[in-house]
Amino acid sequence: MKISKKIIDNLKKGGVDFYLSVPCKLLANMIDILENDKDVYYSAVPREEEGMGICAGAYLGNKFPCIMMQNTGIGNSVNAIVSLLQLYQMPVVFLISYRGTPGEPVGAQGGMAKITEDILQTLRIPMLHCSSEKDLDKISTFSNHAKVVESPVAILCDFNLMKDDT
Amino acid sequence: MNRFDLLNKLHNILKENLIICNIGLPSQELYKINDQPNFFYMLGSMGLSSSIGLGLSLSQTKQVISIDGDGSVLMNMNTLATIGNRAPSNYTLLIIDNGSYGSTGDQRTFTDENTSLKDVALGAGCKKVIECPGEETSNELSKAIEDKNNSYVIISKINSGNVKIDPIPLNPITIRDRFRKFIGIVKYL
Lengths: 166, 189
Known about the structure:
The complex is a heterodimer of chains A (166) and B (189).
Chain A: H1 2-13, E1 18-21, H2 28-35, E2 41-44, H3 48-60, E3 65-70, H4 72-75, H5 78-86, E4 93-98, H6 110-122, E5 127-130, H7 139-149, E6 153-158, H8 159-162
Parallel strand pairs in A: 1-2, 1-3, 3-4, 4-6, 5-6
Helix pairs in contact in A: 1-2, 3-5
Chain B: H1 3-14, E1 18-21, H2 25-34, E2 39-41, H3 49-59, E3 64-69, H4 70-75, H5 78-86, E4 91-97, E5 100-101, E6 107-108, H6 117-123, E7 129-133, H7 137-146, E8 152-157, H8 172-183
Parallel strand pairs in B: 1-2, 1-3, 3-4, 4-8, 7-8
Antiparallel strand pairs in B: 5-6
Helix pairs in contact in B: 1-2, 1-7
């Protein structure tokens, strides 16, 4: 819970006040925290691409949105990212559980893990890769950066960083 | 009645509300009829009009109308479940259902065969679902906006057919900023 709490605290410190998630077991603690947080909006959403649309609308309505998802969700969302969030220059934080990184028990997750950073790089999305607890201190400044450059940004949280956060 | 006729008839209602308008011909036709700063024209991301409108309605209190199409809703059908569980009362989804992919040459969609978006919306948990002919849409949309306790899904059944029209000349950032200025967020314009 300590890691998850630190991530949410830092996102809130960076101004994020609207959260969606397509669940992952590595995000479960953060979802618990958000479901009990009266200061921010939180909802589950069935599909990441749809979540990108909801985040775009939330930005138009003056919220600073974050969508939490597995890295697989980036694959589901490429056109929405390029033809909506980037076309209209909308700041959105992607908080990504980086499935398929070392420690991952499910071999099939390795495929998307191998290309996740390449996809984000191709999309020119600024990345913050968190592999240890001290990396989490960069989250608030990094989130605020999304607003400054009017762009989606991605925070990748390694499997091993999240797996023992019970 | 085709989409252009319907949008013309609805314009008096639309200009008073925050509008998210579907990509392609719906946006181009609405722009041609009478452009307004409170019209957000989608220039990409087919399927997400309903979702953008939902996010907007959750974030501020003004009435929001997402103008969508049958082909676009079929592309993002999970949106109806999210609306059925989360849409606030200042949200209306107007699905212009002409049974065809209008912007790509009027190929038939599944609503022209076996699929009923009304049944899908009801099954997805949307409580107020109205299916009506294009001619009655203005009346149904007014009633939906007046009801301050419920969100609505309105499925307007019209004929296919398009008006020959040019792409929207506006820059996406212009569309974004004047829309947010209308809401009262952007101050510098």
